């Protein structure tokens, strides 16, 4: 479920989100839970009577925790009522450190959430300032402590590396701060300067320096070394977990071609090889559902070739790799020879990226597909 609301827009963000001044009439935070519930009920009607217990729920944003915990709980209850939550279902919400307090975290746990993913991004104030993040570094350990106290077993911290002005030592400091909070999962993403963002405009005007590819590679190597040394091991190129139970099951379903229904404005869905996406503006999304019509904007039916390419592209990012038979053998053996694919697993039928291969993953995938 996509929650498209933010208090302020971060300079690097190009997500489909809206501040109060950008939202306009026809949609609001107050009515959003009811709108989302309408789409959940529509999904049940569209998918029919087939038994489809929900294995995972992921509430992302925007800032989902700008909605009251009771509203998030009502949507989760509607999902359970319409589809049934599978035993042991993973239920995640994203949150900004400043958008929760001890009481709200406790209410989320009571509502049935099992996992929280916090947008930490950095522990250095000057880096947060460039990113236009509003929390202070000391807020993160506090909210992690509250989250653990509320009974959450699984906690993720999101980090970003490569921000203009960030040094290797800044990045090490952010990793050390994240690890000190003892999450069981860390995601670390290279900063991408997206067209149309304030950050892109600052780079274009020369006010900030664009991220350097070599520096990005160095930061990735630092992350892998520090996280692995602390007992968090990579299971996807940008994700490290303490053990298999800590891995994000929801994202694993994306990466392995499962079916999902995306609720909310701009949300994407995939069922049985058909992908579709909703209208982007919250007012248009709400209006269509209020009229009883689909909020879908467009769709595409994936061809066999599309599905093959996507499977290789996504599964090759995983530590478990992808089946070797999906790849052109000659190209794959060249990649083995170049130190991009592990030789022993390949001979046993799996293509697994080496550390060097992870650094060049996009190019490796292009060469193999």
Describe the protein in words.
This is Heme chaperone HemW. It is found in: Cytoplasm. InterPro entries: Aldolase_TIM, Coproporphyrinogen-III_oxidase, Elp3/MiaA/NifB-like_rSAM, HemW-like, rSAM, rSAM_sf. Its main location: cytoplasm. The protein has 369 residues and is an alpha/beta fold. The chain is built from 16 helices and 13 strands. It has an eight-stranded mixed beta sheet. It has a three-stranded antiparallel beta sheet with strand order 9-10-11, with no helix packed on it. A two-stranded antiparallel ribbon has the order 12-13. Strand 9 and strand 10 form a beta hairpin. The mean pLDDT is 96.
Structure summarized in a few sentences:
By secondary structure, the chain is an alpha/beta fold. The chain has helices at 20-23, 29-47, 69-82, 102-111, 125-131, 139-149, 168-180, 198-204, 213-229, 249-255, 282-290, 304-315, 329-337, 343-347, 355-359, 361-368, and strands at residues 2-3, 54-61, 85-95, 115-121, 154-161, 185-190, 233-236, 239-241, 268-271, 274-278, 296-301, 322-323, 350-351. This is Heme chaperone HemW.
């Amino acid at each position: 479920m996509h929650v498209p609301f933010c208090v302020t827009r971060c300079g690097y963000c190009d997500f489909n989100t809206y501040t109060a001044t950008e939202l306009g009439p026809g949609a609001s935070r107050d009515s959003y839970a009811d709108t989302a519930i309408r789409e959940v009920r529509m999904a049940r009607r569209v998918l029919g009577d087939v038994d489809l217990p929900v294995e995972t729920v992921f509430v992302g944003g925007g800032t989902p925790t700008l909605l009251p915990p009771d509203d998030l709980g009502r949507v989760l209850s509607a999902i359970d009522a319409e589809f049934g939550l599978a035993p042991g279902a993973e239920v995640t919400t994203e949150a900004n450190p400043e958008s929760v307090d001890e009481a709200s975290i406790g209410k989320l746990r009571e509502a049935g959430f099992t996992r929280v993913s916090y947008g930490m991004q950095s522990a250095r104030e000057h880096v947060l300032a460039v990113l236009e993040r509003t929390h202070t570094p000391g807020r993160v350990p506090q909210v992690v402590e509250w989250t653990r106290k509320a009974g959450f077993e699984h906690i993720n911290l999101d980090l970003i590396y490569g921000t203009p002005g960030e040094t290797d030592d800044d990045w090490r400091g952010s990793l050390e701060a994240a690890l000190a909070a003892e999450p069981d999962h860390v995601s670390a993403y290279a900063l991408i300067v997206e067209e149309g963002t304030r950050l892109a405009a600052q780079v274009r005007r020369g006010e900030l320096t664009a991220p350097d590819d070599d520096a990005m590679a160095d930061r990735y190597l630092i992350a892998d070394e520090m996280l692995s040394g602390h007992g968090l091991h990579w299971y996807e190129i940008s994700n490290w977990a303490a053990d298999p139970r800590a891995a994000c099951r929801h994202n694993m379903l994306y990466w392995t071609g499962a079916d999902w229904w995306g609720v909310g404005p701009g949300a994407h869905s995939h069922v049985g090889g058909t992908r579709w996406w909703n209208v982007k503006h919250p007012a248009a999304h709400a209006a269509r559902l209020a009229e009883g019509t689909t909020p879908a904007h467009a769709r595409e039916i994936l061809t066999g070739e599309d599905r093959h390419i996507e499977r290789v592209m996504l599964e090759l990012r995983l530590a478990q790799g992808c089946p070797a038979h999906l790849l052109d053998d000659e190209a794959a053996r060249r990649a083995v020879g170049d130190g991009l694919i592990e030789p022993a697993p390949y001979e046993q039928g799996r293509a697994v990226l080496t550390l060097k291969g992870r650094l060049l993953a996009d190019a490796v995938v292009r060469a193999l597909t």
